[in-house]
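Case study B.
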Amino acid sequence: MIQKKICMLGAPMVGKTSLVERFVQNGFSDRYQTTMGVKINRKEVTLGGEDLRLILWDIQGDDGSLTFINSYLRGAAGYLLVVDGTRRPTFHTAREIQKSVERVMGPVPFVFIINKSDLADEWDIDDQTLSEISGQHGPINQTSAKLGQGVDDAFLSLARQIFAKHLPRPDSVNR
Amino acid sequence: MSTDASQIKTEPPGRPPTGPPPPGGPDELSELRYLLLGPERRQLAEIQHQIEHLGAVSVEDVAAVLPQAVMTSARTNRQLHEALLPVIEEDIGLSAKRNPRTLADVLFPVMGPAIRKAIREAISGMIDSLNDTLEHSVSPRGVQWRLEAMRSGKSFAEVVFLHTMLYRVEQVFLIHRDTGLLLQHAATPMAERTGKEPDVVSGMLTAIQDFVRESFVTKDAESLETLKMGDVTIWIERGPIATVAGIVRGHAPHDLRQIFQEALGEIHREQLDALRSFDGDSSEFTMARPHLEGCLQFQVNPKEQAREAQKKVSPAFVLGAILLALLGVWAVFHFRAEWRWNGYLDRLAREPGLIITEARSGWTSYQVDGLRDPLAADPAALIKDTNLDPDDVVSRWRPYQSLDSRFVLQRAQRLLAPPATVSLKMTADGTLAASGVAARSWIDHARTVAPALSGVSAYDDEQVVDAEWQEVIKLRDQAQTINVQFPEGGDRPQAAMNAQIDALAATLRRLVDLAASTRRHLSLEIIGHTDGSGAEALNRQLSVRRAERLRAALQARLPAGVPMTVRGVSSAEPLRREVSPDDRPFNRRATVRVTVAAAPEIASR
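Model:
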């Protein structure tokens, strides 16, 4: 079975761990727990008829120091860049992270996620910014880890980029 | 060369001018040049062709002959080595500078074993020095291990290691260094059941190494080698592309690291290309699994093994063992009790005067019914000798009279109450025999009672002497030895003889009394004697007179009614043979002969 390392990146409290929990266990907890260092999970998906294993490195939220991120990123096949839709500064942090990763690893597949779509009323990112991001990085994935909306799509979207060479057949998430 | 060729391109190469120029050429000068320089130009064209041809062939030819040329050169002289040496040295240096990893990857399979060998030798030296140290240790444990070493033929250090290094490698991970992805995994069956997902663990181990390296270590070559928590140790061996991590429970010997290193080295050697091109497909690394399984080493103390074995015993087995043990204990107690009970019954059966009619043993108690002679031993007292609890034994004894000779004798003793001078015994045919001295009255009593005793078939008192009769015999003999002396030719006792006559009379009086009390008949014969001198007829008369004289003296002294006869024997029964005249006075005498007869005998007459 083909396996790939995938990293979750983003500012603290944007919902990286919740997204992983929703994707891997289809669960969610309102209680916030800071991730210290790295938490690793695995998830098997079927993509293009091929069974694939994603090893998810849920890396501690970083607000700019990026000390450990480079080290943890080594060997990653792709990453999810997560932004909290209700906090604009997390968007800037994400861009910093993305630039840093690009510097170290060169162009690596990634997916831009704006999480907490269930709190759309409180969103702090305007449409202009969204279209700006979309212009730079392609389609934006809006997700709600709490409601489970768009989560699988976001992960599968990244997986599809990584496994682009595999046969184009219907995708599914193995529950 | 090509430049030269391009300058002389009037004729195409490969087509040397062999004939005259085409007729009608406009340039006469050319014709003239042809005529004058024709042969030279042809030669020049040939040379040009050869040179061009030579240039085209030389690369292939050189390639074909170069290896041979190098080998020949290497064999014949060292010029080629010397020529190439600086170039190769420079190239290696350049390669190391540009990408050290390439060189490291190439050298790892070669250098790894050599380095490990050196380390192994260093450890071996360390063990030897440890051995020396332990040689001098005198602790009881040390002595015990030393004895074991002597017994088993192992070195002392080995024995110490065997006792101290007890461990188990539970899981081994082959991890891709860059990605932290799991390439292959081997585990003991138990670890496989209880362990976490190995690919997650693989990632975490990589993350931890990254974290430590990023946080504390500065040199590239340094890395996290050991993680320890409680009795679990994680050993990490880093190779150029992959890492081997082992989860070890207990205290693993250092040799184990070498096994890890060798496995890692082998995997790199065998699958270097696959490792380099790894892109997420770990299926290629199934052939690394035997190497990892080879790392699943363990070593346990025999005591631990025994404990393990004990743990593995099934509850049913334990229950069965307990039941068996209980049964065994019960059997021991039961058979001991039975043995004691049978011993008691045997003892009772042997005891005279006891007859068992019925005996039963139950779970907790015993019962015995039977007959008991009152003179027999007490059965309750016999229990004490057998260690049975008297409370457990219920006895019902009915009285009876045993005909055992011992009891018959006891009963005879009690009923006959013989005097101390009489002893009784039973003979085999049931005869009660008495012997000794007894009063007439007892003898008569015994004769009446003894034959009536149960168990006595006959009574024999032949050996019992009548006490009064004995006295009679004594007095009779005493009386018969008294001589009443007479003077020569006279029939009156000498005066001095009165005392003799009184003594004789006293003895006879006692005899008379005794005979009366025992109903015996007493009679006296008085006999007169003379010496041998003188005429026989006179002597006979004299002897009769002497007897009559003594009878008269006795009649005067004894109660009336004692029959007395007289007889004169002259000198026919002398007391002393008359050798000289001095012997005669002894024979001038009178004596008494006493006859005592039993009254019934008299009656029968």
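The helical segments of chain A are 16-25, 69-73, 88-105, 127-137, 151-162. The remaining cases will be described in the next quarterly update.
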